[in-house]
Write a structure and sequence with these properties.
- It is a single chain.
- The chain has 348 residues and is an all-alpha fold.
- Helices cover 70% and strands 0% of the residues.
- It contains 22 helices and no strands.
- Helix 1 packs antiparallel against helix 4, helix 13 packs across helix 15 and helix 15 packs parallel to helix 18.
- The longest helix has 22 residues.
- The chain is globular.
- 41% of the residues are buried.
Amino acid sequence: MSALRAASTDLEAVADLYLTILRNPPTATSPISTTAEASIDDSSEDDAGEQDRLDGDNGENNVDPSFHSTWNALRTLMVIASGDYSRKSMLVERGVFPVLIDLLTRNEQPKVIQLVAEVIWALCVGHPANKVKAAECGAIEPLLSHLRKSVSKEVQQAVLQSLWSMSYTVPSTQTAIVNLGTLPILYDIMRENDLDLMYSATGLLFHVTSQPVNRLAVAKAGLVPHIIRFVQFIRTSAANNSRHLIATLTLANVVDLTHPDMDTYIGPHERQVVLKLIEEFVCSQNVDEPQTELLWVNVQPIIDLLLSSAVEVQLLGCYLVANLGKTNQYKSKFYTEGAIEPLQRILS
């Protein structure tokens, strides 16, 4: 036990050192030793790849004398944040979010911004409290600023993944993302036909549209035709099944919105196309193959599918209840959160 405490103390000391470096980056004339990184015992083989990225030919490492120290500090924090739940908590308790947000607001180097976004993603994955804390500390607006102005695919991808992770199961963040003007940015991204970016944008839209209040805004922003197009791109490839699932769920969330103005944004023909794509997806699935993409997701948006007036959307809801309900965790959630009544209604 004493050895475990010592290891934890060492890791906290490493975290404090690198947070200090990020708060006060050394200049070329005042270098700081970074040998403490060696005390982290779970650095991955990807470190070599990270260093290759650092040594790329865009010349960023020659622009700012603090670039190397900033990069190495972020890379070390990424290793720690990629660890277990307690390590993520430890970093947040030591003030990592204000440090990262400060970097987002004062640094314009694409490689740094990308890595900051990746660290935020790692801190939030699988950690509900950190998702909320990131938004409370003000991470959304500077991330959106870089998403809006960056021409780097790597930065855009990292920011989208970070926002996706922050919004996963957090209704307040899902609504804030819409209110801060994200949808026009996502519209521009979805028009570019880059499947990786389209997937990340659609993943963010899936969580945004799990809140009914956001669905009309997504339709108004003209995003539905681009989500349809994305599904049509990927539906024939088994390798894209997780992408297909997320895009189909996003369409299901939006298409069933009952609002006086909805036909203005999703016409009868477009609605039929969406419903057909939803039906095709469900019919192509094996209910016994777990949908790992939905691990830890809130079940209420899935139950909402059962309440739809469209049979195709109900079918999608039934498939997901059957799929996720194979685990005791979700079986209990569906029971306690009210899935039984709408299922009985569908059967009657």
